[in-house]
Amino acid sequence: RGAAVDEPVARTGNIFIPSVNACLLRGGRARRYEMARAPAPARKPKAATSAAGRAARPAITKSNYEALADFRFAIRKFLAFSESAAKGVGLTPQQHQALLTIKGAPSEGAVSIQQLSTRLLIQHNTAVELVDRLVDGGFVERTRDEDDKRRARLELTAAAERLLESLSAAHLRELQSIRPVLQNLLKQLG
After folding, report:
1. Helix axes 158-189, 93-103, angle to 10 degrees
2. Most buried among 105, 127, 149, 151, by the most CB within 10 A?
């Protein structure tokens, strides 16, 4: 049993592939039991087979490989920028991701530790330790949920809000600068 993940997941045979964001948040090492699994696709009629008895697939061209490699390089460059920017303001990349997750949560109100662990693709106890460090650093306030006293609710402090605003502005500028490259690569792959 794994935690549900809000990120889309592709299913290919027995291999589960998380979305780019989900996988990259774990440094490319998303754990299978933590990933939400997409429902099995509806069965299609069998494709024509080749002489060797294998199902025929569209050929992957050299330009497809180049586009995939370039796309991965662009993502890795952005992640390197993000890591450097976080370290530049005294945060670890995971702390920055946690602050962004808390601020950008789709639900109204405070975020729970369970929601944080799900969004960061980390174990609950790892999320608790991360929150402890954020509370000690003055970035997060942890309060008890009024409806469920067992649940802790997380909210950013004013200092964290200012820090995250600055980091997010830099990230948006970086994304704007690589946007044409990403759009071109997506067109090649699509």
Report:
1. 90
2. 127
| H helix or E strand, kind and range, residue 163 | helix 158-189
3-class secondary-structure state, position 9: strand
Whether pLDDT at 82 is above 70: yes
Euclidean distance between CA atoms 145 and 157, whole angstroms: 17
CA distance 33 to 31: 6
pLDDT, residue 54, reads 65
Q: Could you tell me the two tokens for 64?
A: 């497809």
Mean pLDDT score, 115-126: 96
Q: Looking at per-residue confidence, does 19 or 49 come out higher?
A: 49
Q: What local confidence, expressed as pLDDT, does residue 57 receive?
A: 81
Give CA–CA dist 67/187, Å, rounded: 9
- Which pLDDT belongs to residue 189? 75
The three-state secondary structure class of 155 is strand
| Backbone φ and ψ of 5, nearest 5° | -120, 135
Is residue 121 a contact partner of residue 88, using CB atoms and an 8 Å limit? no
Per-residue three-class SS string for 95-150:
HHHHHHHHHCCCCCCCEEHHHHHHHHCCCHHHHHHHHHHHHHCCCEEEEECCCCCC
